[in-house]
Amino acid sequence: MIYSIKFNQATLLSSKFYNLVFSVSIFIVAFPTFSQEAKIVETEKEVTEKKKIDRDVASDITATLSADSISVELKWTPPRDDGDIIIARSNEVIDTMEKLGVSDSLGKYKSDKVNIFNNYKDANLRPGEYYYAIVLVSQIKKKRVKLFPEVNYTVTPIVVPAKNNTPTAVPQISEVKHETDSISNLKIRKVDNAVRLTWTPPMSADNSVKYAIYRSLDPMSNAGLMEKATKVGEVNHPETTFLDITLDSSQTVYYGVTVTIQDKESTALIEDKSFRKFYFVKTEKKEDTIAVVEEKKETTTKPLQVNNLTGNVRKDGILLAWAAPEGAINNSTKYSIYESMTRIANESNSTLIENAKKIGIVVHPDVSFLHPNLEMKKPMFYAVTIKTGDTDENFILKEGQSFIKVEPGSKKKKKKKRDDTKPEDKPVLSPTPLVEEANPDFDTIMTQYYKKDKFTEARVKFESLADRVSNHTIRGKSLFFAALCYYNMKEYSSALKILLNEDVQMNYDKERVDFYVKRCLENRGNK
Description:
Blueprint: H1 2-52, E1 59-65, E2 72-77, E3 83-90, H2 97-101, E4 104-111, E5 119-122, E6 128-136, H3 137-141, E7 158-160, E8 184-191, E9 194-200, E10 210-216, H4 223-226, E11 230-236, E12 241-244, E13 251-261, E14 264-266, E15 275-280, H5 289-301, E16 307-314, E17 317-323, E18 333-340, E19 357-363, E20 368-371, E21 380-388, E22 403-406, H6 440-448, H7 455-468, H8 472-488, H9 492-499, H10 502-507, H11 510-526
Helix pairs in contact: 6-7, 7-8, 8-9, 9-11
């Protein structure tokens, strides 16, 4: 009996030892699997880290909304390889080569160990969502662009809010506020027949800082419009004033001042801070006192009036055109167009009747107006009046000059064969003109010069045609193909200036114009 008890205890101890050994064995067998999974996770992490340190990839991109709520500040770590980089902006995530190709280019910049370029301010943005990407030009040329989220392109949108129209009180200190990379408080005034500019310098400006003064007929709110501006002068700090004596006629212009610090020019201009609109009216020199008195009386008693008013009844409406009087000022003189079923001026004093209906306003230098009256069945009267600046509108009319009678025209209905072929989604290098209006001059230039690759002669004739015609559609189309002549001759800057012209932007196919604007920017950057 005693022997039997000892045998059972030994058996029990032996069973516990066997269970322990079995458990350890299972752990040893299972451990390599756990270790292998850990190694896989570590490998994926190494791959991600490797993406961030590719020699030809910018990294650590960040985008933040500035305090002014209309600008975005970009920062990144430059690629270790030297070369030019392009900053791209879009309203959607730029995660493919195709999206990069249709995004807005904010310019090409040199990036190397000497010129460390790692920040950019995208200013004067409209309300909306924005995404950014930074890539090397060499990758685009090789069509081998590397894009990694939150490495060299952003995935979180930067939202520019809509402007609040509620007026807010501006503290007095804002008048003497200094910026770090741009001037502020730009003031413009007329001195005799010259223009004097003064401004507040940037913070901590020293004698190495330079100021460049630009003048343009268009606002200088982005890089494309800056290309159209003319540099009229340059001064060194501490000089903060400039006198422009080169204006030779009355016109509306924009002035802007850029800042160059350590050979890097900051061109992010903001309206009413570093660029401003100015109405320049040239004063005629007066020879003597007697002549001055007589001329002053004559100009004050003779209000402006249009001449040679004509009305042409067409299939798309009535085209009214007139000759501008001497003294009309660009962007200041306004023409008001009136219509009436009865005689539009009183026979006694030639004054515009009260029940005349105003149908439109155009601003000089425009001297035509298309009234879409497609159901004209009886004679109508039309008149054009003038108002310049703060002067009163001149309602005195002269028959045959500033008011006319237009008879309804005979309309012949002709069936036109429609071309069933669909236009291409994107314009080609040498596009054929859109069918808008038949114009013998335009068709002749296309056939005899443009389609025969005689681009120099075609460009001159297109621009000459645009200067002669009053029809906005033909003018815009002629200027567009003049730009394509420059494009085909690889003169991309000249083509870009014409494509950004208001006549082209407002009166031609916007998709085609935008397509060639982007191509000009890309090709100009790759030169």
